Amino acid sequence: MAGALDDRVEAVLAALRREADPKVLAEMGPRYGLVVDKAMGVAMNRMQAVAKAAGRDHALAEALWNTGWYEARMVACMVDDPALVTPEQMDRWRADFDNWGIVDTVCFKLFDQVGHAPAKAVAWCGMNDEFGRRAGFALMACLALHGKADEAFFLDGLKRIEACATDERNFVKKGVNWALRAIGGKKSPTLRAAARATAERLAASSDKTARWNGKDALRAFAKADAKGAAA
């Protein structure tokens, strides 16, 4: 059985290597801010194609993750079965997060479908390392976008957003902003009003990072409201 799994892993890695593009690899850091120690340089649409060909496979996902390759980890989150993902796996993978691309994709493609996601978002928002906290707010944003948590979770999330809105670290700041905008885009009138009130308070803050978060969210809300009114 182990041999068969090893063969599947090697087949996925070989497929990724065939899709590797030196230009994509060269641009990952300078153009996209993806600083990765172990990468091949495969475009997202090609990673998605490799994942689709591999099919849903929890054991394969774990094995691919353990290779340490950026592209293999991206495929891992696309082929894993959310019903089989445990809290321990979520924490283990989160501990390996080292760039915004893997954080956001794992949260968007896999973790937000896991029943433990709301609790993990809360726990990770309280972390102090940059990608750990980014993961918490990215997961909160994905839950808002995909409707996988109740209203009380998001109201509490707005308090956490406000508490962390002064964190000037780039990937945290953008994660906080993403979560605020996502909650403000929910259909719930309560959440929409609460998110806008949060954004207004932040926009009036004396802290420049909090002000940026608030003003950027307010611009996004105004644009969405105008679009909705015109529809």
Biggest sheet record: none
Globally, the shape reads globular
SSE order in H/E notation?
A: HHHHHHHHHHHHH
> What average pLDDT do the residues reach?
96
The number of helices is 13
CATH class placement of the largest domain: Mainly Alpha
Structural notes for this entry:
By secondary structure, the protein is an all-alpha fold. The chain folds into 2 domains: about 1-80, no CATH class; about 90-230, Leucine-rich Repeat Variant (Alpha Horseshoe), CATH 1.25.10. The protein contains 13 helices and no strands. The protein is globular and about 60 Å long. The model has no long low-confidence stretch (mean pLDDT about 95).
Task: Provide a compact summary of the structure.
The chain has helices at 2-19, 22-32, 44-54, 58-65, 70-79, 87-96, 100-109, 117-125, 130-146, 151-164, 170-184, 189-203, 208-230.
Which terms summarize this structure?
single chain; 231 residues; mainly alpha; Leucine-rich Repeat Variant; 74% helix
Topology:
Blueprint: H1 2-19, H2 22-32, H3 44-54, H4 58-65, H5 70-79, H6 87-96, H7 100-109, H8 117-125, H9 130-146, H10 151-164, H11 170-184, H12 189-203, H13 208-230
Helix pairs in contact: 1-3, 1-4, 3-5, 4-5, 5-7, 7-9, 8-9, 9-11, 10-11, 10-12, 11-12, 11-13, 12-13
